[in-house]
Please model this.
Amino acid sequence: MKGFPDARPERWLGALALIIISLISLGNVITRYITGGSFSFTEEFSVFLLVVLTFAGASVALRRNRHIRIGFLERVLPPKYRSALILFQALCGAIVLGLITWYGGKLAWQEQQWQSLSPGLGLPQWWYLVWLPVLTTAMLWRLIQQTRDRLKGELNNDA
Model:
């Protein structure tokens, strides 16, 4: 496979989140230096964008086969057992991501139904939470792609 497998939407989303975090943090520091006060929205938005950045980065890492795992067993097992181990790893990851997607979606739905507002700015809480099932679904898709490529031998299993 040429180069790295791509996860372009997640890369763009992560880069955008990082740029916005940097800009609002810089703006907050400058404002605090000049006026002695700070913007009220920066912490709430920064935490939200940091979560988006984390999940987007995790999705890119999945697609590029860069997640942390113990590769010792993969290196010492014969190929037929290595395939079973890769499938077991994928199954475990899919279960975790499926649970996060399900319960994250349920939480976002409940927050929308309850019309909960964020503590800092009073924005609808579900605006922040809806990204959890969206990004874990992206991670699940990248896990499927990564597993397929690993089983075909197209990705390095020594990572």
Q: What stands out?
A: The radius of gyration is 20 Å. The chain has one domain: 8-152. Residues 8-152 form one domain. The chain is about 75% helix and 0% strand.
